[in-house]
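User: Fold this; tokens only.

Assistant: Input:
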Amino acid sequence: MISKLAVLLLLPAIAFSQTGKPDRKLQKALQEIVDGFHGTAGVYVQNLKTGRYAAVNADTIFPTASIVKVPILVGVFDKIEKGELKYHQPLVYRDSAKYGGSGLMQFFKDSAQTELSVLLHLMMSYSDNTTSLWNQALAGGGEQINRLMEQYGLQHTRVNSRTPGREEIWKIYGWGMTTPREMSSLVVKIFRGEVISPGASERMYRLMTKGYYDETGISQLPPDVQVAAKSGSVNESRSEVLLVNAPHGDYVFYVGTKNIKDQRWEEDNEAVVMIRKISALLWRHFEPRSKWTPMFKAY
């Protein structure tokens, strides 16, 4: 008998409908970069002004790592919108919630006074793991967040960790899973005010523009250009989603990787370098007259 997990992994990913035309020149350039990568990589990029797009393995499922914090953010704001939580709701930190890795709240003292807005800011700016797991619980857990993702038309974007029934798929993808096209779509919906409510979307988008980690894709963009972004990194996967409010038109892109050969935690890690290279390529493609030169070289 074939398990539900096996069926899920065998099913082809269903692409979102496109209103724009493919950008053949950009497609070719991205394909050349991906072809030289030692691992599995996928890219989706779309110019939101023209609708033109390029996609390489854009419907392949990748681990989200910390990018799962975008769906968690949506889950919390759904509760805020319903009046079940308040943005400035007082909370008390207990060190039993401590979780290692990235973030600051793990260093708070037990019984420290805090509030929900602090949890959200730490989750999105410092990719704080302790607050993210706390936020996941406050949102009603992975099951509730996954129902929201389905509601917004995302077939593969899911929270796996601490979500009943997803233990086996967690072993494959970790905390969360998505495709380059789907996560790009979610971020675009937030930008356009289409997630939860216009007000909730605006607040979520602001939170996504205040990230601490800016040495990968963001490093290839001028400092006076606003970017909403979230990155995710584990040993076998480095990925990033960015929505760039560029002078001549907003654009979104997601670079996902898995099964990477180079698992070093160095600035010249192959996957990290590829994300920078793609970000630099896209900036030059969409802003060809820009004379800005990044301090942090793409490669």
